[in-house]
């Protein structure tokens, strides 16, 4: 006996009210419907239906078994749909929003690789430090920095923290000297970022916080330039403008090649949490599932903990 088919036939008998109607729905003979029912009852050892010449009705066990059959058949159908979705080639437009610096320096180059893997996906990347409404604005996914506010409509997957490095160019350090402790910073020209009011880091342009062997140290700094662009700060620092707190997305290549020098290595700078945000409803789309897998493999917290 094919148990799955027998359960399907039984459900049709219950829903249509007769073996004849069930036979028509299942495109088999009435005799075969009866064979499936008898085989089920023999397997279970109990009656499912009470039959008379005029009608049939479910036994108490038959009613409970019908509900269980619906659950089993539903799970099988869902599993088949999942397999179909997994095999479906991602396509269509994938809209993503991300912060300016991370988006331009890290995400955009990585998306070139994603595009090679999934050429039928058209990527629409919007870079902004503003927090847009993901659903109302029609985005499939967002990468966001800062503490997350609970939203039951969205899934937030933690990424590696957004980290920073205190650095300066060799030319500047030759001219002004190398600071060896946080207390040396007020005597230097410190280039600072102008965070908007209400931002998690508003006020950082006047004070820098560093975590070292003696705990957290806060120093008041000053300089000749305040900017609201990481790119502008980066360019100014590379030509010897001063000491800067740069996102690692900018600093790492220059530090490796000696164009910038990391300062105060015994002190850790503040970092910001970062998350990948998306709607559970849209996650059913192959294009979004593939992007989530791609992003988590590159920037998920498990990658950071393994390093």
From TrEMBL:
GO terms (BP aspect): DNA-templated transcription
A GO MF term: sequence-specific DNA binding
Residue stretches making up the HTH lysR-type domain: 1-59
Annotated signal sequence range: none
UniProt key word Lyase: no
Keywords: DNA-binding, Transcription, Transcription regulation
Pfam families referenced in this protein's UniProt entry, alphabetically: HTH_1 (PF00126), LysR_substrate (PF03466)
UniProt family annotation: Belongs to the LysR transcriptional regulatory family.
Protein name: Transcriptional regulator, LysR family
Lineage: Bacteria, Pseudomonadati, Pseudomonadota, Gammaproteobacteria, Pseudomonadales
